[in-house]
Specification:
This protein is about 0% helix and about 65% strand. The protein is mainly beta. The strands form 2 sheets. It has a 26-stranded antiparallel sheet that branches. The chain starts with 5 loop residues before the first strand and ends in a 9-residue tail after the last strand.
C-alpha cells in the first residue's frame, strides 16, 4: 500500500539502535533496541492495533531477561513470565481477559520444575501437581468444573505409580487403575453410578492378561472373556440383562475367528456362522424363534 512498515537503523551493515515496526496505517506496532552485530539489547515494547501495550520486556545482549509482560486487548494482564539468560526461570502466571489467574507454573532453565497449577476462575483448581525436571512427580489432582475431584494420580519422575482413582462430577468413583514403576499391573475396575463394579480386568507387564468381565448395574454378568498379552483370546460370551446368552464365539490374536452364534432375546439361535481373522466367512444361517431356518 506504500505505507511505512519498518524503520531500521544500520551501522556498517549491522542493525544498531531502535528498530520501529508499524501497522499498515502508520500506527506503531513495536520498538526494539539493538546493539552491534544486530543483537537486541534493552527494552522491548509491542502494541495492539488500538495502541494499547501488547508486550513489555527486555533483552540483554540478545537474551530475554527479567520479567516479561503481555496484555489482552482490553488492558488486562495476559501473562507474567520471568527469564534468565534467555530461558524461562522461576514463576510464570497466565490470566484470562477478566483478570482471573488461569495458570501458575514454575520453570528451571526453561524446564518445568516445581508446582504446576491450572486454576478454575469459578471454583478452586482444574489441576494441580508437581514437576521434577520436566517430569510429573508426586501426587496430581484434577477437578471437574464444579470443583469436585476428577482424578487422583501419582507419579515417580514421570512414571505412573500406585493406585489411580477417577470420579464423576458428583464425587462417585468411576474407575481405578494400578501401576508399578510406570507399568500397568494388577486389577483394574470401572464402576456404575450405584458404586457396583461395571468391569474387571487384570494387567500384567502393562498388558491385559487373564479373565475379563463386564457387569450390569445389578451385578449380573454382561460380558465375559479372556485376554492374553493384551489381545482377546478364547471364547467370549455376552448376556442380556435377564441373564440369557446373547452372543458367543472365539477370538484368536484379538480378532473374531471361528464359529460365532447369536441368540434371540428369549433363547434359541438367531444366527450363526464363521469368522476368519475378524471378517465374516462362508455361509451364515439365520433362524426364526421357533428354530426354523430363515435364510
Amino acid at each position: 500500500s506504500g505505507v511505512l512498515q519498518y524503520i531500521i537503523p544500520f551501522v556498517n551493515d549491522q542493525v544498531v539502535g531502535d528498530l520501529k515496526i508499524y501497522y499498515n496505517i502508520l500506527r506503531l506496532a513495536g520498538e526494539v533496541s539493538f546493539v552491534a552485530d544486530s543483537i537486541p539489547n534493552g527494552p522491548v515494547t509491542l502494541y495492539h492495533f488500538d495502541k494499547s501495550v501488547h508486550t513489555k520486556g527486555a533483552y540483554d545482549q540478545g537474551e530475554m531477561v527479567g520479567t516479561w509482560l503481555t496484555y489482552h486487548p482490553n488492558g488486562e494482564t495476559e501473562s507474567i513470565v520471568n527469564y534468565e539468560e534467555g530461558l524461562r526461570h522461576g514463576s510464570t502466571l497466565l490470566f484470562n481477559e477478566l483478570g482471573d489467574t488461569t495458570h501458575r507454573i514454575y520453570y528451571q532453565r526453561d524446564t518445568l520444575h516445581g508446582t504446576y497449577e491450572l486454576l478454575n476462575p469459578r471454583k478452586g483448581y482444574l489441576a494441580r501437581g508437581k514437576y521434577d525436571q520436566g517430569q510429573p512427580d508426586s501426587v496430581w489432582l484434577t477437578y471437574h468444573d464444579n470443583g469436585e475431584l476428577q482424578s487422583l494420580q501419582e507419579f515417580d519422575k514421570g512414571k505412573p505409580l500406585g493406585t489411580w482413582k477417577f470420579y464423576d462430577n458428583q464425587n462417585r468413583l468411576t474407575a481405578t487403575e494400578r501401576y508399578t514403576a510406570g507399568i500397568a499391573q494388577g486389577a483394574w475396575y470401572t464402576y456404575h453410578p450405584n458404586s457396583r463394579v461395571a468391569s474387571w480386568s487384570w494387567y500384567s507387564a502393562g498388558k491385559q492378561d487373564s479373565s475379563y468381565f463386564e457387569f450390569y448395574e445389578d451385578s449380573t454378568v454382561s460380558v465375559m472373556g479372556s485376554y492374553e498379552l493384551g489381545q482377546k483370546t478364547g471364547v467370549w460370551k455376552s448376556y442380556t440383562e435377564q441373564g440369557l446368552l446373547y452372543a458367543a464365539g472365539p477370538y484368536k490374536a484379538g480378532q473374531k475367528h471361528g464359529l460365532w452364534q447369536y441368540f434371540h432375546p428369549k433363547g434359541g439361535i438367531a444366527s450363526e456362522g464363521q469368522y476368519r481373522s475378524g471378517e465374516r466367512s462362508g455361509q451364515w444361517f439365520e433362524f426364526y424363534t421357533n428354530k426354523v431356518l430363515k435364510s
